[in-house]
Amino acid sequence: MSVLVFHSGIDRGEHWRAALGEAMPDLAFRDWDEPGTDADVDYALVWKPPPGALKARFSTLKAILSLGAGVDHILADPDLPDGVPVIRMVDPGLCQGMVEYALLHALALHRDQPAYAAQQRSRLWHERAAPPPAQERIVGVMGLGRLGGAIAQALAGVGFKLRGWSRSPRDIPGVTCFAGRASLPEFLAPCEILIDVLPATPETVGILNADLFARLPAGAGLINMGRGAHQVEADILAALDAGRLGHAVLDVFETEPLPADHPFWSHPKVTVTPHVAAITQPASGARYIAEVIARIEAGEPPPNAVDPAAGY
Ligand code: NDP
Ligand code: OXD
Question: pTM, whole model, 2 decimals?
Answer without folding.
Answer: 0.97
